[in-house]
Amino acid sequence: MHISRVKQLNNETNKDGDYVLYWMQHSQRTNADHALDFSIKIANDLCKPLLVCFGLTDGFPEANLRHYSFMLEGLKEVKEDLESAGIGFVIAKGNPDEAVLLLGERACAIVNDRGYLRVERMET
98: domain CATH number? Predict the structure, then answer.
């Protein structure tokens, strides 16, 4: 894990929560996913379970049926890998921001990856 890749987005301290939440956006994989590795470390340090959430929206710019089919096949593999490691996984249909806010209410920490597409960079 490359700690130099981590950017703290606020100065909030970890509150008492039920789990660590990793909001998977761009890195839809379990191998070479630095944000996932960091999430696992935080969960282990806090002795809390890890929950991974992926928000699935049907309105992603320029996406078509082929894009969604490919993505869903990959997410099926992600789910299997995470479950075999004892990590919870939720796919939330709808606005990804709203899903994270809802799940974040019970989280003691939230980690997210960073998107590198132009549309994702414009949101940050």
Answer: 3.40.50.620
